Amino acid sequence: MMTTRQNxxxxxxxxxxxxxxxDACSYETIITELKEKLTELQGVETEGPKLSVRIDLGxxxxxxxxxxxxxxxxxxxxxxxxxxxxSNVITKVEAQxxxxxxxxxxxxxxxxxxxxxEVDGDLLLIGDVNPGATVRAGGNIYIMGALKGVxxxxxxxxxxxxxxxxxxxxxxxxxxxxxxRAPDHYEEDGHHQMECAxxxxxxxxxxxxxxxxxxxxxxxxxxxxxx
Length: 227
Prior knowledge:
single chain, alpha/beta, Pectate Lyase C-like, 2 domains, six-stranded mixed sheet, five-stranded mixed sheet, 4 helices
């Protein structure tokens, strides 16, 4: 006798329920089987707070309307609330956005007063940022030159972004929503080294030696030999 494969697997977790949906069958089949399973669960533990539900779609893509239908169906049939719907599939627009945010865009130029240089991902600038100029990146900013203007890294919401410059003498630094004004003075001793700026645990922008990145941002240590 053949056993019919279950298209919906319900598992209990410490945070509630997990619904794993078969991504090889039709959406209509999922809805039909879900209604049957939820009907069987009616009347079970209807007291107390609502049970949290996480839906795992696997490699299935659902439209916003289909996700809305799933949420309503579960909330209607049982004492549950859908907290999250996860999928291993993303749209072309979402994929392109991820690519853009991870891409390193390089320029060899001087950014002059009044100019704004902006990229979605990481910015590599071979040149100076003059006073009155601004460079802005969704990711990290690497400046092989003097940073004398404004630099804003992680403006898409990346708190882990960093700003690196050969000569770190900015008028203002910004990382995500944190702002740091320029220091009151700089030491002109002729001894310069590359420095980096990052957000520390106290939500402040810190300027430090480049070597500290190996410790505070180990995920950036991709090249053999490290920083």
